[in-house]
Amino acid sequence: MEEETATSPPTDLSNPTKSSDHALQKKHQAMLDRLSNRHQARNKSSSSSSATESTASFLSKFSDSKRLIESQLSESSKLATTDTTRLKSHLADISSSISALEQLVAENSYLLPSYELRSSLKTVSELKQSLDSLNAELVPKKKFSFKNKSTNKTSVSGPKETEIAKPEPPKPTLVIRDLPGIRNKENEILAKNFRDSEAGEFTLSDLDSCEVRLIGCVSVLFINRLTNCKVYAGPVMGSILIEEVENCVFVLASHQIRIHYAKGSDFYLRVRSRPIIEDCGGVRFAPYCLSYEGIEDDMIKAGLAEDTGNWSNVDDFKWLRAVQSPNWSVLAESERVGAIELKDLGSMTGEG
């Protein structure tokens, strides 16, 4: 109250009209502030409701698939005693179902809360272990016997029984919808300015030896199959999902960052939650170091004005031991690139 009295203009008792105008202005400003706060709260509520619905939809699909796979696993022991000819095919079907479930998690990982993602990946891992145990228990091993060398020579190169029963599950691949983005470029400098437009989801895919400069905010950023690239990006208002990158440098800011199948790459990050890596090796982390004209306003717009320091609090989902994961490290200060400043490069180059 004392600060308000000190900073408010004195009331002019000799001019009641002027005092009345000032009071009306204060009331009008207070009303505008209330409307602005109400609008922001409504937008936040709408965004939160949309994210909750997406997560609920995923969890419903995941739960249904999990129950189906568990039912298939329980039927395996019956087939081992009643219909051994169908057993191998049945186990192969289970393997395919687990791979499809793993794919579902990969496709939705950018929108899932960290706890739900951890729980889903753990469930997939447990289902794989159950299938491995069934294969070892139910599929009979080939008995050793002496055979004439001149017979069945071609059988040496044929598939083993266990390979038929349990095919190698495909590596989960990021499925990207038909989104705006930059694709299939090599040895180019590619730029996009989002500051004068409403940007939604954006994709960087299949780039080799390119430098990418993104100014302004996008809602979600997908990065897939990059080699020997440098990516400098303004703040992302939602999540960043990175998959299959090698020998790259990324300077990124986001609420959530998940990295799959990255090798020998450096990440300069500002991130509100802990970065997540999976199936990565030789990746290093350092603080965000990008600047351009207006980046402070973009950081505020994206809710990333405050640096939480989480860039170094990395979770490795494939390293469950108490000791430090060998798959990532903090980048030594002497090896960091230093401050990077982008000029406003205007319109897009190389969008496809």
From TrEMBL:
Q: Quick check: keyword Chaperone in the entry? A: yes
Instruction: Point to the regions of Low complexity compositional bias.
Output: 45-57
| Cellular component annotations (GO), alphabetically ordered | cytoplasm
Q: Where is the composition biased (Basic and acidic residues)?
A: 160-169
Q: Name one Pfam family in it.
A: TBCC_N
Main location per the UniProt record: cytoplasm
Q: Where is the composition biased (Polar residues)?
A: 1-18
Domain named C-CAP/cofactor C-like is located at 159-319
Q: Which GO terms describe its molecular function?
A: tubulin binding
Q: Return the annotated region ranges for Disordered.
A: 1-58, 149-170
List the SMART domains.
Answer: CARP
Q: Which UniProt keywords apply?
A: Acetylation, Chaperone, Cytoplasm
> GO annotations under biological process?
microtubule cytoskeleton organization; post-chaperonin tubulin folding pathway; protein folding; tubulin complex assembly
Location of this chain's protein in the cell: Cytoplasm
Question: Family per UniProt?
Answer: Belongs to the TBCC family.
Q: How does it assemble?
A: Supercomplex made of cofactors A to E. Cofactors A and D function by capturing and stabilizing tubulin in a quasi-native conformation. Cofactor E binds to the cofactor D-tubulin complex; interaction with cofactor C then causes the release of tubulin polypeptides that are committed to the native state.
- Please state what the protein is called: C-CAP/cofactor C-like domain-containing protein
